[in-house]
Amino acid sequence: MLRRAPTAITLTPDDIAAYEDSRAARLARLAQQMHASRENTVEASAPGRRQSQSRAGGSDPSDELRPLPGEKARVMRVGEGRTRTERIMGS
Of 16, 36, 39, nearest to 28 (Cα)? Predict the structure, then answer.
């Protein structure tokens, strides 16, 4: 393997200033995005809180998607007596 002289990197004060400016702009943009997303989150969750507090009974809207406790047991009992072939063939 051939040896070569090490690469020398030189940084000027202008290079450092340009880096610091771009870094400050990037951090400001990130802070602005975080602030905007935080505001959107607060706005989106505020109506839901008011709505859930105003509901009588305090039911959860996602409960509509869940099966009732007895339904799961009933579904499992229906298929217990049939064999695999009976379930496939419909007997």
Answer: 36
Q: pTM higher than 0.70, yes or no?
A: no
Rounded to 10 degrees, what is the CA torsion of 13, 17, 18, 21? Answer: 180
Spatial separation of the C-alpha atoms in residues 89 and 25, rounded to whole Å: 68
pLDDT for position 40:
80
Which residues are CB-neighbours of 21 under 8 A, at least 6 positions away? Answer: none
Give the Cα separation of 65 and 47 in Å (integer).
21
Distance of CA 65 to the CA centre of its chain: 20
In this predicted model, what pLDDT tens digit does every residue of 3-41 receive, in sequence order? 888 889 999 999 999 999 999 999 999 999 998 888 887
DSSP-assigned letters across all residues of 1-31: ----PPPP----HHHHHHHHHHHHHHHHHHH
3-class SS of residue 80: coil
